[in-house]
Design brief:
Helices cover 76% and strands 0% of the residues. By secondary structure, the protein is mostly helical. The chain has one domain (56-294): MetI-like fold. The chain is globular, with a radius of gyration of 28 Å. One of its GO terms (biological process) is transmembrane transport.
Length: 295
Amino acid sequence: MTSTVTPAAATASASAGAGAPRRRRRPRGTWLLLLAPVLAFDAVLFLTPLGKLVAASTHDHAYQRVLKDPLVSRSLLNTFEISALSTLATVVLGYLLAVVIWRRGPLARVILFALVLLPFWTGVLVKNFAWAVLLQDNGLVNTALQGLGVTDAPLALLHDRFAVVLGMVHYLLPYAVFPIFAALAAIDDRLELAARSLGAGEASIFRRIILPLTVPGVSAAGLLVFIISTGFFITPVVLGGPGDMMIANQIDFYARQLTDFAGASALALLLTVIVSVLVAIYQRILRAGGEYEAG
């Protein structure tokens, strides 16, 4: 059975289409105009200083000099060792704390989030000196250990790598808690109910449901914490020893003590390039793992 359209119906349809408002097409390049202020802001505050660093680092064979300096090699190694330890400890503690907050009610969540945010309400220098007071030979920690009979003499808790990592974890913990909590909060409660109805225990639910679904949050937290930790400066000075100096301290030494701005610029760019390469490799591994699981 075929349908026919009468000339009158066709004319009416054409008239209705002609009367309908047409959507105006935006001229090409509008999105670029909208982004222009942001791009200009980024160029002024990021690209311009970066360009000056690149220009300064090309003078006086700066790269050859800093790469031959054994202190620079040691500082780079310290930076990545301390950053890796701090990232691992921060993500583990942040995960546990995020799970505790996630399992609590609204009022308890507000209180716990306020406690997590406490490090942001005090300066990093104040926190570091507070840890120095707590960890010194006659500090609260050693006094408590000796009072409980755990140790007979004060432990060397200050001016070592342990103190540096502890101070960094204290500062970095909120950066791990919030991405992981966001991943936990996005989990559908019905998944746990379904798993329990099928006889799954708490360990099985965590291993098969919660942990896989929070991998993106854990990955984001680890990446963010690692990037921030590579630039620490005050914490190694206050809490660390001579063998715990990081690359930021070496950059300060070149700029202030040696007045070698070309060397300091070269070190800053080397750190930027190395961290960028590590981040790219990290994201590539995570992407490959996700594609493998999806396949």
